[in-house]
Amino acid sequence: MERKTAETEIRLELDLDGDGNVGVSTGIGFFDHMLELLAYHAGLDLELDASGDLAVDQHHTVEDIGLCLGKALGEALGDKKGVRRYGWAVLPMDEALCLVALDLSGRPYLSYEVELPQRLISDFDPGCVKEFLQALANEGGITLHARGLSGENPHHILESVFKGVGRALRVAIEIDPASPQVPSTKGSL
Predict the structure, then answer these.
(1) Residue 98 Cα distances to 35, 111, 162, angstroms
(2) What is the pLDDT of residue 33?
(3) So where are the chain's domains?
(4) In the prediction, which pLDDT does 41 show?
(5) Which residue, 59, 71, 89, 102, is most buried by CB atoms nearer than 10 A?
(6) Cβ neighbours for 135, distance < 8 A, ≥ 6 positions apart
(7) Three-class DSSP labels, 4-32
(8) Based on the number of CB atoms within 10 Å of its own CB, is 158 exposed (0-12), middle (13-18) or buried (19 or more)?
(9) Cβ atoms of 39 and 76 closer than 8 Å
(10) What is the pLDDT of residues 134-181, one digit of tens each?
(11) Residues whose CB is less than 8 angstroms from the CB of residue 27 and which lie 6 or more positions away in sequence, other chains included
């Protein structure tokens, strides 16, 4: 997948049946780390090269990566025949604990309740995390809930969010051998 705008340029390759092989370069070190964690814990192979107007701020780059990843995920899932559809994780990271639940419903929705004790993390604006997840949910057709249950260290809190999204996604995209149909009584998602 490629996306080029006046603000960003993104090239992304995604394999749902991967081994967690990840290569990410966004120009935002902390965000690279979070994307690597998400893809690894989801069991995805992800190659991502992104550049953006970081002199303005990180928002455009982070959001556009969410759009691309969501779109690639949606296209790779196709009609979602045979997947488990739902995934969840309660993920600890030292003192931090996060709950993530998602549904590959085709109905985008984000509920994000994660509070952080400071504004910047290694020059990363953590406000961009909500924008990333909103873009991912919108383009991927995902209902996504993320709750920060506890934590003091902002790095650990966000790490539990990204790992939690990865783990929940891993469960949701897994093939369910007991149900080869589209996982919906309506027959489509």
Answers:
(1) 17, 13, 9
(2) 97
(3) 2-173
(4) 97
(5) 102
(6) 63, 64, 65, 66, 67, 70
(7) ECCCEEEEEEEECCCCCCEEEECCCHHHH
(8) buried
(9) no
(10) 999 999 999 999 999 999 999 999 999 999 999 999 999 999 999 999
(11) 50, 51, 52, 54, 61
Asked if residue 146 lies in contact with residue 132, where contact means CB atoms within 8 angstroms, the answer is no
**Beta carbons within 8 Å of 140's beta carbon, 6+ residues apart:** 69, 70, 71, 73, 74, 104, 108
Question: How far, in whole angstroms, is CA 122 from its chain's centroid?
Answer: 20
In this prediction, residues 10-37 reach a mean pLDDT of 96
For domain 2-173, give the CATH number: 3.30.230.40
- For the record, the structure tokens of 133 come out as 């997840």
Beta bridge partners of 43: none
d(C-alpha 189, C-alpha 182), whole Å = 7
pTM: 0.96
Give the side-chain half-sphere CA count within 13 A for 20.
12
For residue 67 the two structure tokens come to 């759009």
Compute the average pLDDT of residues 100-110: 98
Tokens of 61: 């780059």
For 29, 133, 144, the CA distances from 141, given in Å and listed in that order, are 28, 11, 9
